[in-house]
Specification:
Blueprint (H helix, E strand, L loop, with lengths): L34 E2 L14 E7 L7 E5 L3 H11 L15 H20 L18 E7 L4 H19 L14 E2 L11 E2 L37 E2 L2 H5 L5 E8 L5 E7 L2 H11 L6 E9 L4 H19 L12
Antiparallel strand pairs: 1-4, 2-3, 2-4, 5-6, 7-10, 8-9, 8-10
Length: 329
Amino acid sequence: MPPDTEPTPPPAPDNDPLPEYLSEVWLDLDWSPWVPFDASREFFYIPKEPGVYRIRPAGENFLMYIGETGQSLHKKLAEFRQALRRADLMPWSDPHEAAPCLWAYWVEWAQKRSRETLKEPIPESDDEVGLPKPVMFEFSAAPLDASPAGRRGMAFFLLYRYRQDHGESPVCNFGRFHPRYRRSSTRREARRGAKLEEDQKDNPAGFLSVPPLAVEGTCGSSDWMGLEWSKKQALTKENVLAVATGAGLYLLSDAVSGEILFIGQSADLRKRLHEEIMKHRDGCELVFSYQVVGESVFPHNLRELECDLIGNFFEQNRKAPDLRFRNTR
């Protein structure tokens, strides 16, 4: 239930002017004020409808995560807070895939602050440990009346625009992670994440974000987003066998209308396109084009480039490619 009197909105960060991606009208959505993770009365401002949300370090001008949900935003973010309630135990990667990453940065920053200012380590015990002060994260949310595919498309659009404006991705999207931590698995797999030992190599998911693609051309053109797309060919086994090996991006389009129906990425383009033949063998006739990125590319970098393409497609067409999120719930 809401409080008897409306709480005072959280104050805006001191930095002025705010980047557009932190404003309450970013991309014409109705964003809530920024609410601290440990807020009680201010949490009233989080919408109870499905929609999109963003998370940042308190008072900072960059984002940790952009997400979407088909359930109540209020419930989703309340569960997020619950997942991060312990400083001594990394949460599982389900149902909140970003929770382990947020936890790793929260604990690392809290320990650093403890060493530098408090001169006391975070308590290590089996008891629940509350969020250190000051609050490390805050979130903002916007309701969105859209289909599941529409919400996913909007989330990719937000990520694309953030990358264009900020020059890199949110710290915990696309499978990115803290370089000195390993991620928790799902509850079923039961492998709890933790900080790496000093003699262990950095987690590759913590390596740098790839710069955003240049906004050039129109969807499906040979120079779209500053890339050099291959000539469109029928999606057949013979044509796929001629595809260069390596990681890359690909487009599937309707052979008649030319409309892009799917945008994807893979560490093995040839193998993925073979899989697409089997997946769409009973559907409409498709053509494909592709761009090889390299022999070995970090998975989060491929996902970032894929997002740039989907986000720009959304910007030009006000929807995601028809087949991209068709199984989204």
